[in-house]
Design brief:
The protein is built from five helices and four strands. The chain is elongated. Helices cover 54% and strands 8% of the residues. The protein has a four-stranded antiparallel beta sheet. Helix 4 packs antiparallel against helix 5.
Length: 142
Amino acid sequence: MDVITKPAPGGQLRLSIGEVAQRTGLSVHALRFYEREGLLASPIERTADGRRAYREQDLEWLDLPLAAIRRYAELVREGPGNEKERLDILRQHQQRVTDQIAALTTCLQMITFKVNLYQDGLTAGIDDPIWCSSGQPPTVHD
């Protein structure tokens, strides 16, 4: 993996495409696609040897859905006067993320419930507090 993680002139930290992929969960192919399709507000800078050098602010774009990134980037490049539409895009994204958090919270609650069942079962000496393939109650060990 190419590693850049160092300040560029002006002191701003730069990240390699591999580092960005690792931090965002996007593949390097997806990142190249985003750049090629103009889905970022500004071009990605390059190092002297031609490698991509992302800034922190470049990463801020990468959590929106593709269509929203495209439209938001277009609006930013158009300049002032379309802030209301930008705000609408961000509010929609905010709602999607809020919904995802709610769904993940529900999943976490179920996992926590099962973890507690197993922990309590182990403490009480029960083989398997959740699944019993024989259809019989769990076995308790003294």
